[in-house]
């Protein structure tokens, strides 16, 4: 219930909340990536636990901001506040860049998500790209056999986030939207 309230509040101040959540998500993903590439064999488990805990909560909060809670038999839709915010952002965004940045993340996990790279990309797409970056970082950790960096809690939250967004954003009925 608390996350539902946080999501509702985040949608109320979406133009402030979403960029902040994106910055935090990118920052923690970058810290995890840097930690795994550190040449030192010693892992500071306290820092790693904090990073993973932050990532877990950021995924849950982002998921509740971008989606609403539904009963299993209800049709899932994109929240009206997100639709309004998204249509306001269209004039500032480059659709081709939005598509290109998502493709680049999937092709090269080391791509830096700097302000320059994200310039012209809609905040909702930025959030999805940040989650893809985290997912790609986790995949990279598995591929390298660095399982000590992987948090089961983050993996579950990541799966939950992607599943929830897919249900709301990819499976929507166009007839449910006025504009």
Compact overview of the structure:
This protein is mostly helical and 179 residues long. It contains eight helices and no strands.
Mind explaining what this structure looks like?
With 179 residues, the protein is mainly α. It has one domain (2-172). It is 69% helix and 0% strand. The chain has helices at residues 2-12, 14-36, 45-66, 80-89, 95-107, 115-118, 123-144, 152-170. Helix 1 (2-12) crosses helix 2 (14-36) and helix 2 (14-36) packs antiparallel against helix 3 (45-66). The mean pLDDT is 83.
Layout: helices, strands, pairs:
Layout: H1 2-12, H2 14-36, H3 45-66, H4 80-89, H5 95-107, H6 115-118, H7 123-144, H8 152-170
Helix pairs in contact: 1-2, 1-3, 2-3, 2-7, 3-8, 5-7
Mean pLDDT: 83
Tally of strands: 0
Unreliable stretches (pLDDT < 50, length at least 5) are none
Q: Helix fraction? A: 55-70%
Computed structural class: mainly alpha
Domain count: 1
Outline the biggest β-sheet. none
Dominant shape = globular
Gap between N and C termini: 30 Å
Q: What Rg, in angstroms, do the CA atoms define?
A: 17 Å
Percentage of residues in strands:
under 5%
SSE succession: HHHHHHHH
Helix count? 8
